[in-house]
Amino acid sequence: MNTEADYLNQYDASRFPSPLVTVDSVLFTLHQQALCILVVERANHPQKGYWGLPGGFIDMARDDSTRATAMRKLTEKTGVSPSWLEQLDTFSGPDRDPRGWSLTVTWFALIAWADCEPHIASVSDARWVPIARLADYSLAFDHQKIITAALHRLRQKTMYSLLPVYCLPETFTHGQLQEATEVILGQSIQRKSLIRRFEASGMFEETGESMATGTRKARLWRRKPGVDIHLFSRNLLTD
Amino acid sequence: MNTEADYLNQYDASRFPSPLVTVDSVLFTLHQQALCILVVERANHPQKGYWGLPGGFIDMARDDSTRATAMRKLTEKTGVSPSWLEQLDTFSGPDRDPRGWSLTVTWFALIAWADCEPHIASVSDARWVPIARLADYSLAFDHQKIITAALHRLRQKTMYSLLPVYCLPETFTHGQLQEATEVILGQSIQRKSLIRRFEASGMFEETGESMATGTRKARLWRRKPGVDIHLFSRNLLTD
DNA sequence: CGAATAGTGTCTGTAAGACACTATGTT
DNA sequence: AACATAGTGTCTTACAGACACTATTCG
């Protein structure tokens, strides 16, 4: 007799060698017209003292998916949940970690700077780094490659959606969204095109309030609750 | 003294519990105007007798990435390398496999039916199933969910690239590409639009040969060697 | 020649790019 | 009032949709 129940009774996972599994996230924000990434100084070996992405091991007792692991680690470092969190890619191989064959499930996240600044300012090991300054940091493992992939994803999605709103505070103006989009894409865009898309997306509602960012007051908007992101069928900046 | 070398000397991966890690692929092809997926009958527990995606454990001695694992498993089942292979997503959680907390890195692949039919016909455990017939099969684990994600990816990419060419033989006609695209999208498309994109992509060259699929002979084309896939800035079928 | 599929010409429709214009608030 | 930023009107451009047209091959 050899039922599945018999098999499972005798099954011992520790008999099989397994890769080292981690979860890492690339969290972006915008601050002072710069696109920034959250990096953490490594307190332990391996690569102690290097800077790395926020992440770590899965806690199988608490996490019911790698999304939960990513969320838990980001919340530990920032004090809040990211506004946007999607899976990026899985990186693996025998040489990327000195402890052996390893695999990291990576996530791509966005948050408003103001939402987490108080918490980040209070912990010394996490820091926002403008992407133009990343070269000043010694990054652990293949984290530079992961960041490059995340940046590519962010720029692609910015071309066919209004993803940058997830880098903004709960209420925001057209001007702030335009600035966010321009910082991410690294070039100026047509305000008219952005506003046309903003309206067509059906994702937003006016708060009724307005705010003076420049000289004239600008209307404030928020994301409609429960409304999903809208994907456009054409890209911005199609050159 | 506590150097990284000391740390690595004392490091014992087996002390830490680790999720069960697998790699699974969704391989699509086109046959007789139907979009098909390769499924394999499970010879061992768990879920023995159910059908599942081609995949399995990482062989850390031989595979230098999960891509290599996916490629190795697909080659075992089909006899050839897929024409297209990209990472899809990672699925994880405590309940998806009865052996415990598990994680599968999934890949999305395309191949021409004729390239692997001789090999598949010779092995009894692998089978092409038209997606409309998947309901007739008892699928293992969360493989239905993985297939749904792969199908979504295939359809999306078909809207903004000529990805379906990777389901065709090395040389093919405009008509075959149109048929492939229509089968994948489940609706007819404008031949003129397809040919405009085909030319604009710069991905193809004429073989000089032609072929009678219908009454009149059609020109044969192939992918230019070393040329990457072209992504269009607008979608087809934007309704 | 007619039938069927291969392939082209060209008009329409839609949404982005460009940019001038008007509106509103601050000094 | 001057000015700077908010927001609109509208022309142009690029490319997909529609569909009629011509071309080729076979019976």
TrEMBL record, chains A, B:
Residues 18-153 form the Nudix hydrolase domain. GO terms for molecular function: catalytic activity. InterPro entries: NUDIX_hydrolase-like_dom_sf, NUDIX_hydrolase_dom, WH-like_DNA-bd_sf, WH_DNA-bd_sf, WHD_NrtR. This is ADP-ribose pyrophosphatase YjhB (NUDIX family). Gene3D superfamilies: Nucleoside Triphosphate Pyrophosphohydrolase (3.90.79.10), Winged helix-like DNA-binding domain superfamily/Winged helix DNA-binding domain (1.10.10.10). Its cofactor is Mg(2+). PANTHER family: ADP-RIBOSE PYROPHOSPHATASE, SLR1690 PROTEIN. It comes from Klebsiella oxytoca. SUPFAM superfamilies: Nudix, Winged helix' DNA-binding domain.
